[in-house]
Design brief:
Largest sheet: 8 strands, mixed
Strand content: over 45%
Number of strands: 8
Radius of gyration: 15 Å
Protein backbone atom coordinates (compact mmCIF):
# COMPACT_ATOMS: atom_id res chain seq x y z
CA UNK A 1 0.00 0.00 0.00
CA UNK A 2 1.28 3.46 -0.90
CA UNK A 3 1.59 5.85 2.03
CA UNK A 4 1.01 9.54 1.61
CA UNK A 5 -0.84 12.62 2.61
CA UNK A 6 -2.91 15.41 1.11
CA UNK A 7 -1.60 18.95 1.58
CA UNK A 8 -3.76 22.00 0.90
CA UNK A 9 -1.61 24.89 -0.37
CA UNK A 10 -2.28 28.53 -1.22
CA UNK A 11 0.14 30.13 -3.70
CA UNK A 12 0.26 33.62 -5.20
CA UNK A 13 1.39 34.90 -8.59
CA UNK A 14 3.02 38.33 -8.62
CA UNK A 15 3.69 39.90 -12.04
CA UNK A 16 6.33 42.38 -13.15
CA UNK A 17 6.20 43.08 -16.89
CA UNK A 18 6.49 39.65 -18.57
CA UNK A 19 7.87 37.97 -15.42
CA UNK A 20 6.45 36.26 -12.34
CA UNK A 21 7.99 35.94 -8.88
CA UNK A 22 8.92 32.36 -8.04
CA UNK A 23 11.05 30.61 -5.48
CA UNK A 24 13.75 28.26 -6.63
CA UNK A 25 13.75 24.68 -5.41
CA UNK A 26 15.60 21.43 -6.03
CA UNK A 27 13.87 18.15 -6.77
CA UNK A 28 16.31 15.96 -4.83
CA UNK A 29 15.15 12.71 -6.40
CA UNK A 30 15.58 13.93 -10.01
CA UNK A 31 18.35 16.48 -9.29
CA UNK A 32 16.37 19.16 -11.17
CA UNK A 33 15.71 22.79 -10.41
CA UNK A 34 12.06 23.82 -10.33
CA UNK A 35 10.23 27.06 -9.59
CA UNK A 36 7.10 27.67 -7.53
CA UNK A 37 5.02 30.75 -6.74
CA UNK A 38 5.29 32.02 -3.17
CA UNK A 39 2.89 30.65 -0.55
CA UNK A 40 2.44 27.57 1.57
CA UNK A 41 0.22 25.28 3.58
CA UNK A 42 -3.16 26.13 5.03
CA UNK A 43 -3.64 25.79 8.76
CA UNK A 44 -6.73 23.92 9.96
CA UNK A 45 -9.72 26.31 9.96
CA UNK A 46 -7.94 28.89 7.80
CA UNK A 47 -9.39 30.03 4.47
CA UNK A 48 -7.05 29.87 1.47
CA UNK A 49 -7.06 33.65 0.99
CA UNK A 50 -6.07 34.08 4.64
CA UNK A 51 -3.29 31.51 4.27
CA UNK A 52 -1.74 33.15 1.21
CA UNK A 53 -1.69 36.55 2.95
CA UNK A 54 -0.12 35.01 6.07
CA UNK A 55 2.46 33.04 4.08
CA UNK A 56 3.60 36.11 2.09
CA UNK A 57 3.86 38.10 5.33
CA UNK A 58 5.75 35.29 7.13
CA UNK A 59 8.08 34.36 4.27
CA UNK A 60 8.79 37.74 2.67
CA UNK A 61 7.67 40.26 5.29
CA UNK A 62 5.33 41.87 2.73
CA UNK A 63 1.65 42.73 2.67
CA UNK A 64 -0.43 42.10 -0.45
CA UNK A 65 -3.44 43.75 -2.10
CA UNK A 66 -5.83 43.11 -5.00
CA UNK A 67 -5.93 39.38 -4.36
CA UNK A 68 -7.81 37.43 -7.05
CA UNK A 69 -8.59 33.70 -6.98
CA UNK A 70 -7.44 32.04 -10.22
CA UNK A 71 -8.63 28.51 -9.49
CA UNK A 72 -7.55 25.18 -8.05
CA UNK A 73 -4.75 22.90 -9.20
CA UNK A 74 -3.62 19.45 -8.11
CA UNK A 75 -0.26 17.76 -8.13
CA UNK A 76 0.32 14.10 -7.32
CA UNK A 77 3.89 12.87 -7.13
CA UNK A 78 5.47 9.65 -6.00
CA UNK A 79 8.74 9.36 -4.10
CA UNK A 80 9.82 5.83 -3.38
CA UNK A 81 7.11 4.18 -1.32
CA UNK A 82 5.23 7.38 -0.53
CA UNK A 83 2.98 9.61 -2.56
CA UNK A 84 2.34 13.32 -2.12
CA UNK A 85 -0.93 14.92 -3.12
CA UNK A 86 -1.16 18.73 -3.13
CA UNK A 87 -4.41 20.59 -3.65
CA UNK A 88 -3.43 24.13 -4.60
CA UNK A 89 -5.51 27.29 -4.38
CA UNK A 90 -3.94 29.69 -6.90
CA UNK A 91 -4.18 33.45 -6.47
CA UNK A 92 -2.81 36.50 -8.21
CA UNK A 93 -1.99 39.60 -6.21
CA UNK A 94 0.13 42.70 -5.89
CA UNK A 95 2.58 43.78 -3.24
CA UNK A 96 1.26 46.71 -1.21
CA UNK A 97 4.79 48.19 -1.21
CA UNK A 98 6.56 48.78 -4.55
CA UNK A 99 10.00 47.78 -3.18
CA UNK A 100 9.81 44.06 -4.21
CA UNK A 101 9.23 45.10 -7.83
CA UNK A 102 12.53 47.01 -7.83
CA UNK A 103 14.62 44.03 -6.68
CA UNK A 104 16.14 41.41 -8.97
CA UNK A 105 15.72 38.77 -6.29
CA UNK A 106 14.09 38.66 -2.89
CA UNK A 107 15.39 36.73 0.10
CA UNK A 108 12.77 34.84 2.07
CA UNK A 109 12.53 32.45 5.00
CA UNK A 110 10.33 29.36 4.98
CA UNK A 111 8.39 27.87 7.92
CA UNK A 112 11.44 25.84 8.98
CA UNK A 113 13.62 28.95 9.17
CA UNK A 114 15.46 28.04 5.98
CA UNK A 115 16.42 30.89 3.68
CA UNK A 116 15.26 30.79 0.08
CA UNK A 117 15.67 32.95 -2.98
CA UNK A 118 12.75 34.28 -5.02
CA UNK A 119 13.45 35.61 -8.52
CA UNK A 120 11.51 37.36 -11.27
CA UNK A 121 11.43 34.69 -14.00
CA UNK A 122 10.20 35.35 -17.56
CA UNK A 123 6.98 33.49 -18.38
CA UNK A 124 8.39 32.53 -21.78
CA UNK A 125 10.97 30.28 -20.06
CA UNK A 126 8.14 28.20 -18.59
CA UNK A 127 6.12 28.24 -21.80
CA UNK A 128 9.15 27.09 -23.82
CA UNK A 129 9.90 24.45 -21.15
CA UNK A 130 13.33 25.92 -20.39
CA UNK A 131 12.32 26.01 -16.73
CA UNK A 132 9.90 23.83 -14.73
CA UNK A 133 6.97 25.49 -12.93
CA UNK A 134 5.29 23.68 -10.05
CA UNK A 135 2.52 22.70 -9.69
CA UNK A 136 1.64 21.46 -13.14
CA UNK A 137 -1.26 23.24 -14.80
CA UNK A 138 -0.86 26.67 -13.26
CA UNK A 139 0.78 28.08 -16.39
CA UNK A 140 -2.61 27.69 -18.10
CA UNK A 141 -4.20 29.86 -15.38
CA UNK A 142 -1.96 32.86 -15.88
Amino acid sequence: MIKGSIRPLALCIFRKDDKILVREGIDVENQETYFQPIGGSLHFGEYSWEAVRREIRDELGEEIKNLTFLGPSEQVSRRGESQDHAIVFMFEGEFADKNPYQQLEIQGTDKHGQAFRAVWKPLKEFRRKKARLYPAGILDMI
